[in-house]
Design brief:
Mean pLDDT: 92
CATH topology of the largest domain: Rossmann fold
GO molecular function: ubiquitin-like modifier activating enzyme activity
Shape: globular
InterPro entries: ThiF_NAD_FAD-bd (IPR000594), Ubiquitin-activating_enz (IPR035985)
Domain THIF-type NAD/FAD binding fold: 179-349
Number of strands: 19
Radius of gyration: 24 Å
Low-confidence stretches: none
Protein name: THIF-type NAD/FAD binding fold domain-containing protein
CATH architecture of the largest domain: 3-Layer(aba) Sandwich
Strand order of the largest sheet: 9-8-7-6-2-3-1-10-11
Largest sheet: 9 strands, mixed
Helix content: 25-40%
Length: 493
């Protein structure tokens, strides 16, 4: 199990305001957290800050908690059903901070208080004030802390402090020289270590996944339970007729293409033949730092919309809709792109997700022509072409760069919409609704509202594909293709 910590940008700003002192002395602070539990990673989400009262902390060059402050905070955390976080600053320090002997003794001493009161492990965090870098560790007992892999601040400008011991800075390869020249080695070291999940391996998702691999990311996952078909070949750039004939899974095709495009010296492809609308898919998604939403159904998009806020994982979403005249000529096309993080409105607030459609999608009615006719609804737009899907993938990747590299120090923009017929790019002025159920559940973690449900449909599709036996000629072609790929890799490598 890996461990990490995440907080909203607003929470981090409140903490920095207390821990960075004008007089240059250390300071201390207490907060609370809840857990977000993935398949391989558990994340502590900072929920609230408990400010000290007069006399509850001592500042004397170094700083220390009083027992009264810790006991009061532990009681408040227990009442909220949350864990306890002890934070302190190291003035002038930078990077991931280790523990001094005094820090170790303090946290190990209060570990028992936190665990006995809240029934959750103590979380210790240190701030290096020179570059506002964090470090974090979980105390499951008094003997030894378990160090987190990263601490993330989730806002329109997304920042990560990495524990270099657990997630080492990758070597810059010769293939990455122009990438690094665009934003520098430090940004490359931060971005390349992000674990990024692409949900949906269609025309947009397949392009996004390959370009992430080419950028030098160490780990990219693709989630899709569907297979390549002949009708996909005008959009899935890189997929072949053999892929369609063999009905290869989209994640297998994506994995092959990503390996060919990857520039990192050690690249990990993670294949997930799963559905994001199933709890199993959600647990997988919680292991990632950033998610690309390349799906078009209301239900999967609602699940991802919830994860973005409840679990503090930025979700980059977008899509395209094409409109034609009755004679088949194109009338218009609209692509959109937006990033879901605290500080930006969710899909429901900007009108890209209708709550009532989620229930219809669960029942499969949005794909039922008879229901659509009786209900007098418009059928979902399914048109797409390779030349325009590239616009969407480009828009999503631009959001990713804004989120992680912060050109102009501005982070991600307001939601964008491009109207093809009038050549106009629009910046949305929509703000979050005051009663938005998604944004009001920010940092809820494992207490999130359950939108995903266990299903067997996608499991049956994956199982049927695995058990299908193809004609001999196709199996021979597949073996020859595999042999040619291995030979090429050996000769080039």
């Amino acid at each position: 199990m890996r461990y990490s910590v995440a907080m909203t940008g607003a929470t981090e700003a409140a903490v920095l305001d207390r821990l960075i002192r004008e007089d240059g002395q250390e300071d201390v602070l207490i907060a609370t957290y809840v857990l977000s539990t993935g398949l391989e990673r558990t994340t502590a989400l900072i929920r609230s800050v408990i400010l000290p009262r007069d006399g509850e902390r001592l500042v004397h060059g170094n700083a220390s908690f009083t027992s009264a402050y810790v006991l009061r905070a532990a009681s408040e955390a227990r009442a909220a059903g949350e864990g306890l976080v002890l934070l302190h600053s190291h003035p002038g320090a930078e990077g991931w901070q280790l523990l001094s002997r005094m820090d170790w003794d303090t946290e190990s001493e209060y570990e028992r208080v936190a665990r006995s009161t809240t029934k959750m492990p103590l979380l210790g965090m240190t701030l290096g004030t020179h570059d506002t870098a964090w470090s974090a560790r979980f105390w499951f007992d008094r003997t030894e802390p378990t160090w987190a892999e990263s601490v993330r601040s989730v806002a329109p400008t997304f920042t990560v402090t990495w524990n270099d011991e657990l997630r080492a800075v990758p070597r810059v390869t010769a293939s990455q020289e122009r990438t690094v020249s665009s934003w520098g080695e430090r940004a490359q070291g931060l971005i390349s270590r992000l674990r990024v999940l692409v949900v949906g391996g269609g025309s947009v998702g397949l392009d996004v996944a390959q370009r992430l691999a080419a950028t030098g990311l160490l780990t990219v996952g693709v989630m899709d339970f569907d297979a390549v078909e002949t009708r996909n070949l005008d959009r899935l750039i890189g997929a072949t007729r053999l892929d369609a004939a063999l009905q290869r899974s989209k994640v297998d095709v994506a994995a092959r293409l990503m390996r060919s495009a990857a520039t990192a010296s050690s690249f990990e492809v993670r294949r997930h033949e799963n559905s994001i609308t199933d709890p199993e898919g959600v647990r997988i998604a919680l292991d990632y730092d950033v998610i690309f939403s390349c799906v078009d159904g209301p239900w999967p998009r609602a699940v991802l919309n919830g994860i973005a806020y409840a679990d503090l994982i930025p979700v980059i979403d977008g899509g395209i809709a094409l409109d034609t005249f009755e004679d088949g000529r194109m009338r218009n096309g609209i692509w959109r792109a937006h990033t879901l993080v605290p500080g930006r409105p969710c899909m429901a607030c900007i009108g890209q997700l209708v709550a009532g459609d989620v229930a219809l999608d669960k029942l499969g009615l949005l794909d039922d022509a008879e229901y659509i006719k009786v209900a007098n609804r418009e059928a979902p737009a399914r048109q797409n072409v390779a030349t325009l899907s590239a616009s969407v993938s480009g828009a999503l990747l631009t959001q990713f760069v804004s989120l992680t590299a912060h050109p102009g120090r501005r982070g991600v923009p307001a939601p964008l919409r491009y109207i093809l017929s009038t050549h106009r790019l629009e910046h949305s002025t929509v703000v979050s609704g005051p009663y938005c159920p998604y944004e009001n559940a920010t940092a809820a973690g494992d207490r999130r509202t359950l939108i995903a449900e266990r299903q067997d449909d996608w499991r049956s599709i994956v199982a049927a594909r695995a058990s299908k036996k193809h004609p001999l000629r196709l199996r021979v072609l597949a073996r020859l293709e595999s042999w040619a790929q291995r030979l090429t890799n050996r000769m080039v490598g």
